[in-house]
Structures are given as C-alpha cells and as structure tokens.
Design goal:
The complex is a heterodimer. By secondary structure, chain A is mainly alpha-helical. In chain A, about 40% of the residues lie in helices and about 10% in strands. Chain A is globular, with a radius of gyration of 25 Å. By secondary structure, chain B is an alpha+beta fold. Chain B has one domain: Roll (SH3 type barrels), CATH 2.30.30. Chain B has a five-stranded antiparallel β-sheet. The interface between A and B is medium-sized, with 26 and 31 residues.
C-alpha cells in the first residue's frame, strides 16, 4: 500500500487540492498522522535568497530611497521589459521579404533598419543572418543567454538552459530534429555563438504559399523560434 | 590565517569568489576577412568571453564586428579601454569536434576579441 492509498475518512486537509489525485478519497485506509501535508510547489520565499536577489533588492531600495527613480518608474520599466514580444522582429522580417532594398539595409544594420519602422532595437548592435536554400542559421549563446530581447522578446527558458547552450553548438542537427526541424544534409548548417558584443536574429526564408500575402499576414508567419533558427516559417 | 579571515570578512556569504584575468595586452594585430586565425589556447582566470571549446582551433575571419570595450575588464568595474577589435570567426564544425555527426560543410561562427587571435596557416 502506497502513501496515497492510505487516504481515508480521517484525513484532514488544510488546503485545497490543486494537484491531480487519481485515487478515491472515500474508501479504505487508516488516515494520515496529524500535521500531514501534501507536497506543494515551493514558493520563491521557501528557498534562501541568493546573493544577486539580495543585491537587486538592496540596489532597488536605495535608488528609490535616494530619489533617483520612483517605485512607479521601476515598476514601469519591469513591465515594459516583460511586455517585449517577437512582434517587432516579425515586422522587420515581413518588410524584408517584401522590400529587397530594406532587406539590404537590415542585413547591413538591423538597429538602423528597425528605427526606420519606428522600432527601438536598443544600443547593442544586432546582426541579421539570412537563411537561403543553401544555408540555415541557428543562434545560441553558449556562455550565458545573450538574446535580442527588444526585437524578439524575452528568451524562452530552454534558450537559457545548459542543455540547449551546450548541444546547439555540439550537435545542432540533433537539437533541430528535437524541435521538429529537419535541415537537408546538402544545406550548410551554421551556428552563431553570441559570445560577445553582438546579438543575432535569423532572417528566415519566405515560405512557399505566402506569395499573395500582405505585410501583416506575412508577419504573423514569423515566430520567435524561426528567428532563433530552431524552426522555419510555414503557411498553415 | 589572520589575513585570510580579514579578507573573508568583507565578503557577502554566497557571493562568487572571482579571480581576475590579467589585463589584455594590445597585441596590435588586425585581421582581414579571409585571414586564417588560431584562437589562443590559454586558460586565464576570471571573466573571459572566449568559449573553451574554441581555444586552440583554427578558423577564418568572416568580418570585423567593430571595436568594443574589453569585457574582461568591464566585468570588474574597470573602464575597458582601449577598445579592442571584435572579429566574427568561422570554423568548420569538423575542426571543432573531431567526431561531429553532421555533414562536412557545417560551420560555427564565434565572436572573438583580437587579443585571443594569432595568425595561422589555412587548414
């Protein structure tokens, strides 16, 4: 008899069940000892704060106490960081598909091309790397998690994970297959390791079937993953 | 022992202990696209932006990616001047990983600062 099988009439909970039980509470069993708790997802506060958590809190508190920023300004900045999305990058890609001259300017200087569309790509230089029938590009930051956040939003957790960071450079084709993306052997697969002062985004190929689409519809085909290079745009 | 205790006293518990890399020397080298380069096989302590897997490997300069303040200095609150050239260097995956599983034309492009690069014979 497992611990879960021993639930019975005497078993008293002081919390709502939000985890899936697949057994019957009504039958059998001898109940739980007093003070019994089911495992639950730990709260952030259940772990000791790290050095950087304390530093962040302390610096934030000091900036506010000294009147350098207000609590509302700090909140607004965090809100706008969290609100970044791949939409800005997708607009750039769609415009590049439709306008070869714009594409040329984007490949030369993404930040300036973004500014043409009223998009603030930030002060860190971003390079666009273009997929062609002979070349597929994939972006990784093996050292940390460098990512063009202002254009494609916050990085997904897997992008920051050691598994992706080590395997994307070591066995990129196997990683792509796990993402459901198969690159033919005749195509060069080029991995860009964003180790230093540049950030990268992939300029994917315009998919077949999109010939009649306008800029907005094209942009909707361009996903975050296709701008990292783990996927390619498709017409549904 | 006493000195050690004093050194530790100012440290926040849990803060990383960081050894500093020696300051980068300006080696006065510049490279053009197409130049073969070898990444220095060096293992200095401290904050370094040259990944381990690329050290000692030979690649080809793809482009110059501007001059930037040295991140090995910036990491310790120093100004990072003079600025250093950053190069995008392309390697054949088969040269990085002898047992690379993909086709021979697969490549990796890594951004590397000038003081990590020496001229090399093309492989």
């Amino acid at each position: 008899m497992s611990a879960h099988d021993s639930h019975g009439p005497g078993h008293d909970h002081d919390h709502e069940h939000d985890h899936g039980h697949d057994h019957d509470h009504g039958a059998g069993g001898g109940g739980h000892p007093p003070g019994h708790r089911h495992p639950h997802q730990p709260d952030i506060e259940d772990r000791p704060p790290t050095h950087y958590m304390l530093m962040t809190q302390a610096v934030g508190d000091l900036l506010i106490a000294k009147g350098i920023v207000t609590a509302d300004e700090l909140r607004r900045t965090l809100e706008s960081i969290d609100a970044t999305s791949p939409a800005a990058g997708a607009r750039l890609v769609a415009r590049a598909w439709l306008d070869p001259a714009f594409k040329g300017r984007m490949l030369a200087d993404v930040n300036a091309a973004a500014a043409e569309l009223g998009i603030d790509a930030g002060g860190i230089p971003i390079r666009a790397v273009e997929n062609t029938p002979a070349l597929h590009n994939l972006i990784v930051c093996t050292l940390c998690s460098c990512y063009p956040r202002l254009l494609i939003g916050l990085p997904p957790d897997w992008y920051k994970a050691r598994a992706y960071r080590s395997r994307a450079i070591r066995e990129p084709r196997a990683v792509l297959r796990e993402f459901g993306t198969s690159i033919p052997d005749a195509v060069e697969l080029r991995v860009h390791d964003s180790t230093a002062d540049l950030r990268y985004m992939v300029l994917p190929m315009r998919p077949a079937g999109s010939e009649s689409m306008g800029e907005g519809e094209l942009a909707s085909l361009v996903t975050r993953d296709s701008m990292i290079g783990v996927s390619v745009p498709r017409v549904a | 022992m006493e000195r050690r205790r004093r050194a530790r006293a100012g440290r926040v518990r849990g803060a990383p202990v960081i050894k500093r890399a020696p300051p980068a020397v300006d080696r006065g080298r510049s490279f053009a696209p197409g130049d073969a380069v070898r990444v220095r096989e060096a293992y200095p302590p401290g904050h370094v932006r040259t990944p381990f897997f690329i050290r000692g490997k030979v690649g080809v300069v793809e482009s110059h990616a501007g001059r930037h303040r040295n991140p090995e200095e910036l990491a310790y609150g120093r100004p990072g001047d003079p600025k250093l050239s950053l190069y995008r260097v392309r390697f054949r995956q088969g040269d990085i990983w002898p047992d690379y599983a993909g086709p021979a034309q697969d490549t990796a492009v890594v951004d590397i600062y000038e003081h990590w690069l020496d001229p090399a014979e093309a492989s």
